[in-house]
Amino acid sequence: MASSRMLDSDHLSAIAVWTAACLVGGFFLWLLSDIVWHGVAEISWEFLTTAPLNAGRDGGIGPILVSTALILLVCMVVALPIGLGTAILLAEFTTDESLFGRLIRRSLDVLAGVPSIIFGLFGNAFFSVTLGLGFSILSGGLTLACMVLPILIRSTEEGFRAVPTDYRLSAAALGLSRFTTLTHLLLPAAIPGLLVGFILSIGRAIAETAALIFTSGYVDRMPESLLDSGRALSIHIFDLSMNVPGGDAKAYASALVLISLLFAITTLSAWIADQWLHRRIIPV
Amino acid sequence: MIWSRSTFLSPSNRDRLLVWTLRGAAGIAGLILLFIVAFLILEALPALRTLGLIRFVTDPSWHPGEEFYLMLPMMWGTLFATLGAVVLATPLGLLSALFCRWYAPKPIARTYRRFIELLGGIPSVVYGFWGLVVLVPMISRLHPPGPSLLAGIVILTIMILPTIALLADASLAKVPQEYIRGAAALGLGRWAIIRGVVIPAAKSGLFTGVILGTGRAIGETMAVLMVCGNVVQTPQSLFDPIRTLTANIALEMAYALGDHRSALFVSGLVLVGMILTLVSSAEWISRGRIYG
Predict the structure, then answer these.
(1) What is the ipTM of this complex?
(2) Measured between CB atoms, which of A16, A108, A114 is closest to B272?
(3) By residue range, what is the domain housing residue A252?
(4) I need a surface site. Which of A172, B59, B110, B203 has the fewest CB within 10 A?
(5) Measured between beta carbons, which residues in chain A are less than 8 angstroms from residue B43?
(6) Is any Cβ of chain A less than 8 angstroms from the Cβ of B9?
């Protein structure tokens, strides 16, 4: 009796597990194939380079790609030095018990959980209104920089922590200054971690919509300066599907472009992390 | 910490400058959160002062034009959508993780895990778009109007499933092999081992995953905005359109002025409050009681 019931629960659970896995996998394939199927017909060199016409129903996404790239550029130029500095401080220059380090870490953990729409509200109130940057690529990029900092710092810090302690001990024994140790020894060794963090941050930033609606705005012209409003790719998809009747075909194509970019980004970061695990030697 | 002050009898100025630069960078990074909260409070103050907190739950409706600011229906919207998604995504996520760890052959498990990671990286606006053009018409054939609480729950479920599944997978991997071998040596079946040994041992990690998933569902904006219909009402059934707090901010921020704008920042504060509660409870769970 007991053994047959055991067999039953084993079988039932196996069925449940396989069903759930098929369900999730099937859903994923459905979503992806739907977007590829509808999107691929629209994609051409012309689509990627020409300006949108007729509110986006015709034409391409040229200026939108440029705006997206500029927003990402602003985001990373601001986030990188701050993120790198914080990561070095947390990994190399604070103990786990120090109050300052703990406070920073706690604050970053919470920041990582803050919803993107809140970053949008903050960006609008601070960068657009208080600092007077208005709806611009600059405000959008700065808002995103605040948003990606936690993930950037986390993976860079991991990179530094993965450098063997021996390096630091040897450098100290040789009487090298901290600055020299950092720039000549630790930084080169930690570059893969930094790279992974950099790529993941770009992935997070390029996928973002809610934080950009009230900071970088909707204008789909080619931006002339960083103070111009520029429409990011994700906002373009949103606008086409919600506000433009008949915009679905181009929205599919834009979604395909966005997903392909993200796919490339995650594959690259996974590859770098892999390479790094295989040989953890400093390239001096 | 290898470096201590005594290692360097005369720390060079360059080192001191370096440390202070790094502290500056870290200070900026740490202050962002304070800045965000400060700005939310600053912008929310006018509404809190002129309207008071009570009006957000006692006003007859949400009609900012007529100065009615009832926030309850949107809170219910957020709550129902989140709850529904968590209830669906938790078992699916856990079963997915079990599939990867113990049921699938190695190559399938690796592909499946990669799938889930990719699923987690897909932007919310793409989920929203797909929901709008595929899911909503399907629901509309089933029971009009289509854009509904149900659509929101389904989309949110797919969106938070990767978070729950990947964290569950990671915590299942941390269960010591001896536990499993010991249980197998006692002659327990696969499911008995999983239910009786593995899941209790991985409990805290599973909880953390669910809580992080919940946080993601509460904060999700674009996808929900695109599939839920955005009618301000307390839903009576799964097929009623709803509006969540986040969608409300995204929809009205563009033209809101004065008290209205300020009221939106109040709802932002409410959201941050929810997230803070979740994060601290997640921390509390993961800190102690790892195998408790």
Answers:
(1) 0.88
(2) A114
(3) 45-278
(4) B110
(5) 121, 125
(6) no
